Amino acid sequence: MNRISRDFFLFLSKNKLLNDGAKRWGFRLGASKVVAGTDINSAIKTIQSLNNDGLKCTVDHLGEFVTQKEEALEAKNNCINTLHAIAQNQVDCHLSIKLTQLGLDIDKSFCLNNVYEILYEAYKHNIFINIDMEDYAHYQPTLDLLKILRKEFNNVGTVIQSYLYRAEKDLDELTDIPLRIVKGAYKETPDVAMQSKNEIDENFLKLIKMHLSSGSFTSIATHDHHIIEQITAFVEINRIPKETFEYQMLYGFRTDLQLKLAEEGYNLCTYVPFGNDWYGYFMRRLAERPQNLNFVVKGIFSK
After folding, report:
1. Is 245 in contact with 267 (CB distance < 8 Å)?
2. Residue among 293, 225, 241 nearest 1 (CA)
3. Active-site hit among 60, 105, 132, 277
4. pTM for the complete prediction?
5. Hey, is 110 helix, strand or coil?
6. 284: closest CA among 248, 247, 250, 246?
7. What is the pLDDT of residues 27-71, one digit of tens each?
8. Do residues 250 and 38 make contact, with C-beta atoms less than 8 angstroms apart?
9. Pairing of strands 179-182, 218-221
10. Is 180 an active-site residue?
11. Selected catalytic residue, list 60, 105, 180, 201
12. Distance CA 8, CA 252 (A)
């Protein structure tokens, strides 16, 4: 049943008609519990509050799969304005971006120029940029652009999705790059991605331990306390310094665990999404954990 629910929500996440409608409906679907508003001012207030609780942040101006240059340029400007807001408010936060939002499906050179502008602005303010990994169709193009960008900028990293069979090989080639390691949130075919939860969890742990052992910065993106317990034991046994890794969780999820880890002295980074284009992100969160459907029910009946 959970598999059916996951596939259903992933199908909905790519429905353009529903996405357009969601922008009109606002947050009536309950997304306000996991999305920090539609504008940068709302996001900054949320980040300040999280910082005050001892949590670092990464912020994401939501949007993806853009097909018009005007939209991509607007997204680039939104990213730059977000960087300015981070710097002006002196919050402990970096920026996550999606290449399809910046024109990857339009023209790779056009996308690369947009990202160059963002990275240059981030470099001036000493802000790190993380390139979110999207579906498998955009996986290799993302790695290709990352390699070009790393020739000029060291303030950029990306994501490795543990459900991909090629993930370990790619990790080996990115040992000197800061990486966020995740399980994977898109529906991929069995020829490229593992389908079993146990198999994915096992690979997830393996990749985390590999990158931690390399000495490069590792963001461990999970809400699974069993995995966190195993990683915590691993870093203690191997005397891996706390400043070389962080646990990363989504805004609105397992807040109690986030605060607990921060109180124990671990770096905890909260992924804070904001913006009007929140529908696809929200559907994927429901796909990961269908129990979150109660957010929808509460959101609708609390209006």
Report:
1. yes
2. 293
3. 132
4. 0.86
5. helix
6. 250
7. 555 667 788 988 999 999 999 999 999 999 999 998 877 999 999
8. no
9. parallel
10. yes
11. 180
12. 22
